[in-house]
Amino acid sequence: MSLDVARVWVDVPLPHLDRDFDYAVPEGLIDLAVPGARVRVRFAGRLVDGFVVARTDHSDHVGTLAPLVKVVSAEPVLHPEIAELIRAVAERYAGTKSDVIRTAIPPRAARIEAAARTAEAAGEVLSRPTRPDASHWSEYSGAGGLLDRIASGTPARAGVNVLPGDDWPRMLAELVVTAMSGDHGALVVLPDATDVARVGAVLSQLVPGQFEVLSAGLGPAARYRAFLRISRGQVKVVIGTRAAAFAPVADLGLLVLWDDGDDLHSEPHAPYWHAREVLSLRAHQTGMSLVFASHGRTAEVQRLVTTGWLRSVSVSREVLRSRGPRVAVASEADVATAGRIPRTAWRAIRDGLRAGPVLVQVPRRGYLPAVACRECRTLARCGQCAGPLQLATGHAIATCTWCGRIAGDWNCSECGRGQLRAVSVGSSRTAEELGRAFPGTQVINSAGTEVKAEVGSESALVIATPGAEPVALSGYAAAVLLDAGVLLARPDLRAGEEALRRWLNAAALVRSGGAVVLAGADAANRAVQALVRLDPIGFSERELAERSELGLPPAARVALIRGAALAVTDLLDQCNLPASARVLGPVPDLGVRLTEVIDPVRVMIGAPVADGAQLAAALKAAMALRSARKSGPGVETRLDPIVLG
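Above: the chain sequence. Below: its structure as tokens.
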């Protein structure tokens, strides 16, 4: 049989062209145009890149097929399993395969390909490690069965709640080595480079040279080199950030995602996929094992546990009480008399410094990230773009956080006065205040672009924003969570869940028996109570129950549509929405700056999970119709956005 027709995905991001196209394979390219190869084709009168997804001996196209112009590389970088995954992700998020493939497959580097062939010819023999004792999992109910199934290659799916203080990088590494002992590959997706380095350090001890790191921080050449080693099966274990979810790992038997609630797992470009959903789709398509692990628990994972798709793995309450940190909440009277840093927090810092480093978590970075009129308390805004003003230091002139304009001549729009007061205090100002309060103590600031990976065991004050907390070598003696109410006050559906996640991640850095003090939050708040009890599972169960009653995610699929009013209205007119869908809006979109879009609005569409695929298909069809008609300005469409505020 002569397979002289190539099915090609062309690199054209227009929704109405998001389909396979058939091209004739010239005689000279028959052996090169293999499935997965990069090719160049003529499309709409110009040369564009693409990927061969299949070879066949027939085509439904009427007329003469255009030939492939060139095989850019015969390296099969688009594996069939990954092609199906890309197709599924594009359908779920009402996006195009072209947009998904850009993050799934790194750009080509011809020099790296040639060097990789030489390395492959030299031959690398992968040793098969013995199964580890996995002692760190011994106190987790259901962990024994999970590890047995991973080792044997039997599919297992679990949502694991890691006890604060447990060595989670080693626990994930033990899962990986367990899979390797059964001659299976493993893929671990982590939020950022710091987490990748921590897990990589443990794997370097357990299975040196038998894993690959895949992240954008590597640089184009190093990333493509790592991708080729993975694609060719030279390594069977991969750790990396969100794009690694598409890594073509050989003999893959285990997928692991750490801290699925971290917003770094959400792709910021269209079609805005989330690593949790990508791995869920991949596990569903291939039947491999899947583990979601974190200190907290999102409502999405809890829903999968409730439906029976995931099994919950955690420690008992007795173990939790004996080994977890001690959590206290500063009383209202304490806060009222002592201000932003109550006496309880001062005492915890003073006592903790006698035993080692103390962590102080501050929700905002900078010095004074928000200021207001000293007289009437009106929020200070830029006269040029209406953005909020900030102060970078105690002696700086106010500047706009949006356009960067210096507002040296600012006067209040309400009372006309020109003096400012702090509305919120950032990490830099907090470090300055605590440095004066504890003279002679080393103060370390970890925030923004200056994030510290770790600190020593000596006494020090570590001021950090959420997610930027360094790891203390022997654990923190204490942690103080300042301005905790700021996280709870966010106008977003996930405010409580996200606050609890950030608090638990900070508490996990405290040594066993250490103190954690929450300051500036209502003690009666559900998230605060969950932190005191170290009970994220109970919190997620109540969150899921309430959201199910209200028809909110994850009990429903939600689409957020933003753009100019006329464009959004036109899109909605073209949508054949399911009968169960609820349309909320349009309402003015306050999150868009006035200079970007004329008359910006936002619309939210919700539908039951059972009708989610129909909702995505309707939106994609409507966008394809607008694209074919060239209907003016584009519309941003996000399915299952992480922020619904």
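The chain has 19 helices and 28 strands.
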